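Sample intake sheet
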Amino acid sequence: MTHALETPPARSRRDFFRQAGQAALAGFAFPTIIPGSALGLSGKVAASNRISLGVVGTGNQGFNDIRSFLGDERVQIVAVCDVNRESPGYWDGKVGGREPARRLVEAHYAKEKSSGTYRGCDALVDYREILGRKDIDAVEVCTPDHWHAIPVIEACKAKKDIYCQKPLSLTIAEGRAMSFAVSKHGVVFQTGSQQRSDPQFRRACELVRNGRIGTLRSVLVGLPAGRQDYARTGDRKGAEPVPEGFEYDRWLGPAPAAPYAPARCHVNFRWILDYSGGQVTDWGGHHPDCAQWGMGTEMTGPVEIRRVKGVFPPDTIWNTATEYSFESVYENGVTMTISNKERMGVTFVGSEGNIHADRGRIETNPATLKDSKIGPDEVHLYKSDDHFRNFIDCVISRGPTAAPVEVAHRSITICHLGNIAMRLGREKLRWDPRTERIIGDDEASAMLSRPYRDPWKLPEA
């Protein structure tokens, strides 16, 4: 007799998890998340019964994320992919690339083997090799921002569940296309906005949503300034030969053609508008996202961007804003100010008090707010205390994740609009969050999307 929690050999592991999750959810009110333990997946799990994961992008954050997924006994990483074989040039000059990632994975799984060795993780150059594999259930996309939309949409079409690092997209049009693809193909999607799994941010947002500071008046969002040369290659901005083992043209992908320079790639892509949006969008995937969570506006957005200021010091390659400030105005009159001059984190200002949250801490005024109890009939926000495990829980249960794609799209849209206004020197932009259109400004509207370099195209969902 087959045990109820064994995977029948004729049924794919993916189908098994889908059906087991659906059965478990049948007894619970949506959107309860059924942890893996409820499906008999806690403790020691055979490799053949684990969620099979491929990782696309093994540089800075990707390397850290691999470690997090390796800590989940329900996951088996079977492939890593990066256009760089192996080199320094990452955070603090560390070495990254597909080969170091492969060694990390295989060293971890070797500990499970009596022989002390393991050779079961492929190191690939082309992400499409991962998406084409029937044995892979889920993928992480941890590439530079300009390389998020294409693999995410193609992963949706391949029916792979997706963990995608923040910021979600390079443009508003890409974010809309990604959200549409996730919805159309019914895949599980988690954005790497891990502050949604921080108990202090959740607590702050619950207090605000339940009126503990009275009527919400404004929200102040503090982000970092500057352009940090984390890899210490910022002075190497002139053209150099492409290093051996680095598929630079593939790294550029849909972005405009440009000569290779160490200050352009790996950790430093963040400071170049062809690939990212600087600190505004890097941290914009975090604090403004939590601000919208507390405001209850996570499925909409502002109606106006105003009081815009941006400083763009001249540089031969780096061209993102080093100082910035703009105010987002909502239909209900609440304003959200995003600035490098504000206190780091999120401050909710109400008629009867205020609450400040940052990673791992919360401060309230009056102080007694911190201990306020949320009653059973009040607003209780989605609870997750581990962002990576939450993703795997949802792959199994088929429930919603802590950071869904549409929520991430709406949050990063605010920062994209701020960047557009700063780049054009606009003091104000009018925005329709329903149609997702800039009103009365054709030049700004043209920046909602970007042209792609041949032969790359944004896939149709």
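Comment: The first strand starts at residue 51 and ends at 56. DSSP finds 13 helices and 15 strands in the chain.
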